[in-house]
Structures are given as structure tokens and as C-alpha cells.
């Protein structure tokens, strides 16, 4: 799943505070690297295991699927009002740090619930919603703020290193957490294992917030960055920038692309949230096998991203998006063929490769086709529509499973419907007239790791490399 920033392309106008000297600049970059490392640690051992925890504490397979989807809609909705919160606080920096601390705090009730062995579905959804609300609501502000924290001449190399560090820390945390849960489950202390993981995840995010707080803000003011003044402006996405020529008009191809992306998300999410209960409940995989399958998809996705970047540079992002879109079609249906671990490892390997193509092609084409004066409005609309699609897809999947029943046949039916829907969506992609992109590469932040490689990611817009 992909998320974009709705404030990221607002012009940066500074107040009277001077830019930091080189020594301060280097300290800022070091602190940003530390933030990335601890954020990656949180992702690897935190939200990635929410669905597994729902199963372990006895909430059931439906709850396991919904926990991975419904809270995202809350976060997507709060992105619509985050500009007002930034206005009220008068600072991007304060809003970012506040959100990071709140996200860290969301792990405390989860750790306590795991320790005590009791949690209701309503409380689980509420806690997960707070987590995603805090995380997604600060995304646009972070993207705007980081553009000035990192000097333009150093951005390409810095964000490459920063993204790599976050990916490494996420992977190490993911593997370590899975092996730890495997050990605790063998000793019949699974819930205590989850309590420890959520405590560590909260500490990681809190340390990340400390480094964000210590990063010197250089005076990027909300008013100077086009943050809306009123709730009506937030809801409509209106910007003061006039649209006076055809170059500022959204093309039919861009609208068709957005329709394809949102509808594709619905069919992906019909099956996506239910891979975790399928593996842990239906197939009775241990946590070690579970994390191995997730990790293979994650690694293949990360490693293939640079390959697809080279393909996009030579042949265009449209081709990469098409390869990814076609490759995603059979992925869920491939789980029907066999439940042998060796086969599923191959499926996960392919999942990572094709999801990398799809997400990179999407990001490159999305920012190329959106008129600059309307990007705030369109990205806000897309973010909300995307999270709504996640919720619609997951609840549809839950309804189908409730009707058919949680059995191997039920899961296989769900996987088949998902693949059929993805094939249908390709009809929307066909015939879209999209220009050759001017972006060569864009770095991403992993916000969550999901089975099937359909991770929640967000672009780092300051990292975009122009041709």
C-alpha cells in the first residue's frame, strides 16, 4: 500500500532564523539517521505483529484481518485535518514530535494487554487507530520539514543512506522479533513475548522522537508553506495558487490512473489482511516460519527496487508500472496451489519483486502526471481514497469469509477473488496516455511490513532525482 504526502510540494519560505552552520547541519543529519534507525526498529517489531497478536490473544481471524486495515482509515482521515493542527501549534517541528511521542505511547496499552492476557476487539482497534492516526497525520509535515533540514546538494546521497539504514534496522528487528516469539511460544509464554516486543517498539519510537526533537528546526512556518487557514480549505484541498492554463489541468489519463490505483487497492486488500491468519491459524505455521516468509518478500522488494529504477530510466515508468500491475495479478492465487513452505517462499520472492515495480512505477507516474498547483488537493484526495479502499477491501474480505467460513476453501476463494479483481483492474490501466517521466528515482519509508510484500510505504519527496 502506498501513501503520499499532501503538503510536500508546498514552497519553502523561511522566517528570519538563519540556516544552521555546517557543524549544526552535520549534527542534524546524524540525528535524522538515528531517527531512521530507531523508526525502522519500531516498524520491524511493532505494527507488523498487530494481526498476529490479535490471534494470540484470542480475538479471532476476522479481528486479525480488520486490525490490519480499519485503523488506516482513521489515519487517512486525520491527514485531512492535520494542517489545522499545524496552524494551531504554529510549528511543523512540534507537530512531528508530538505525533511521534503519541505513536510511541500507543504501544503501552498493548504491552499491558499482552502482559495481563486480556483485550477486547474494540480496544485493539482503538489503540491501532491511535497508532496510525499519529503516524499518518505527521507524514505531510515531516516531508515538508525534512526538505529544509537536508541541504539540496546533499539530498541524493543522504536519503539513499538513510533509506538503506532504515531498511537494515527494520529487517534486523523483524527477524529478531520473529525468532523471539518462536522461542516464547515454545515455552508457552507467547503473550509475554508480545508484551516485550511492544515495549521495545515503544521505546524505539520514543528514542526516535528524542532525535526528532533535537534536530534543529530552521524556521519553516506553516503560513509560508501554504497550510490552509480554514476547515473548509482543508476539506476541499483548495490552494491559493491560481490555475490559469491547460498545463495545470488534470488530464483524463491522470484521473484514470488514480481510479486504477484506488480500485486495485480494494482488490488487493480483499485478501491482503488475511494472509496472517491463514498462515498462523489455518496452516499452523510457527512464528519462525511466518517471519521467514515475510522477510523474503521484504528483502526481494528492497533489493529489486534499484533494478526497476534502472528499467524506468531506460524505458519509462509506464512500463515498470505495467510490469508490476501484471505481476500482481496471480500472486494471491498462487497461494492456492500449495501450502508447502518451499513453494510459498518462491511466491513471496516474486511478490517482493513485482510489488517493488508496482510501487516505484506508481510513485514516478503519480508525481509526473499531477499538475504542481493541484498536487496538494489531489494527494489529499488520493490519500483518503486509498485508505478508504483499504477499509472497503478488508471488510469485503471479512464478509466473504464470514459467509463461506474460515476453512482452507474459504481462504482459497478469497485469494481467487482477489486475483480476478486485479486482472479486471488492468483494463483501466490499458490505454492510459502517460508522459515519459522526468523523475529517475525516489526513496521510500517503510511504515509497515505485511505478508505478500504489500507494505505500507510513503515517499520521501525531498529524495526525488530529476533527469
UniProtKB/TrEMBL annotation:
The chain crosses the membrane at residues 49-74, 95-115, 121-145, 165-185, 191-212, 257-275, 287-308, 320-337, 343-367, 379-404, 410-434. Gene3D superfamilies: MFS general substrate transporter like domains. SUPFAM superfamilies: MFS general substrate transporter (SSF103473). It holds the Pfam family MFS_1. Keywords: Membrane, Transmembrane, Transmembrane helix. Residues 248-467 form the Major facilitator superfamily (MFS) profile domain. The keyword Cytoplasm does not apply. GO terms for molecular function: transmembrane transporter activity. The keyword Manganese does not apply. PANTHER family: INTEGRAL MEMBRANE TRANSPORT PROTEIN-RELATED (PTHR23526), MAJOR FACILITATOR SUPERFAMILY (MFS) PROFILE DOMAIN-CONTAINING PROTEIN (PTHR23526:SF2). This is Major Facilitator Superfamily protein. It comes from Allorhodopirellula heiligendammensis.
